[in-house]
Sequence to fold (146 residues):
Amino acid sequence: MSSSVVLKALETKVAGVLKVALPLSLVIFTYEREITPLYGAGPTSYLLDKILLAAILLSAIQPFRIPKQIKFLLVALALTFAPNATYWVAAWTARRKNPVWGPVITHASVLGPLSFLLTTFVVEMDDPDAEVRRLNCCQYSRTLRF
Fold:
């Protein structure tokens, strides 16, 4: 393969990763700014990186594939509900007066699913069999229509 073909493939992969990395970093930034006044900086950042890492690893090792349309719908719903869910889950867990488990439950129930859904775009983009399965599925459905 020529170097221009390799560079073009690398460019499309980098563009795909950036399409997910920029919104995910913005979501994490706003999430931290929203939850820090309630719990403080220490408890908020205590297990945040570990929960994000677990959500990203879970999206990489998941055994099932989510169709792209369903994924867009789930991400849109998650981004719509995230501000209210962040506030209400954090307020509910703050009433329990546990400065460690409150943020952990909030991270796991709000930021975990959102980062899982956003990172599945990158994981499935790198799956070479996904395009083959999609093409075979479309070809199979076309033969059934006739």
